[in-house]
Amino acid sequence: MRRKGPILRRKGRSALALMVVASLTVPAHAQTIASATGRTTIINPLSVSAQRDLDFGRLIAGTTAGTATINPISETRTVGGGASSAGGTPISASFAARGVAGRMLHIGVPTTPIIASNGTGATMTISNFAHNGGNAPILLDGDGDATIHVGATISLGAGQAEGAYSAHFSIIAIYL
CATH code for 47-175? Predict the structure, then answer.
């Protein structure tokens, strides 16, 4: 005699499994709502303007190559090699920065030499640019102001041609 119980149980399990699968494919009627917040902070734009040019003063070229360096912190000139000081008003370049009080600025100065020309074909290189923050960022004060001083080294050749030499350079200031 055959038992009907286990067959029904097996059929019941199959029917239950079919109902579970069918319920997974039926669209849900419950609704869930989630929300988020959008936000931003507006800060004053950073502005930087040149206040004065980098000036190595007057120099005398000797029979050997020489250099003159303007220190961006002390704003003083030192000469070496065949170069000699001949007066003038040596001073670092100065830039005024204005932005958000208390923010830090990363300052980028030229990393490759630039060529200064006297307009008649003679040239010298200006290199080793540095600013008064050294490798550290510069802090904007409580009013959002900072002064950036930039110094560098100019290289004179032996018997460098006479003339007024100049070259343009740029700095970059970025909020940190």
Answer: 2.60.40
* Distance between CA atoms of residues 67 and 157, nearest Å: 9
CA-CA distance, 160 to 2, in Å (whole number)? 118
Amino acid at 78: T
Tens digit of pLDDT per residue, the chain (176 long)? 455 555 444 454 544 444 444 445 555 567 888 899 999 888 778 999 999 999 999 999 999 999 999 999 999 999 999 999 999 999 999 999 999 999 999 999 999 999 999 999 999 999 999 999 998 999 999 999 999 999 999 999 999 999 999 999 999 999 88
Written as one letter, the residue type at 158 is A
Token pair for 142: 């409580």
- What contacts 24+ positions apart, CB below 8 Å, involve 119-125? 119/163, 119/164, 120/161, 120/163, 122/160, 122/161, 122/163, 122/165, 123/165, 124/154, 124/155, 124/156, 124/157, 124/160, 124/165, 125/154, 125/155
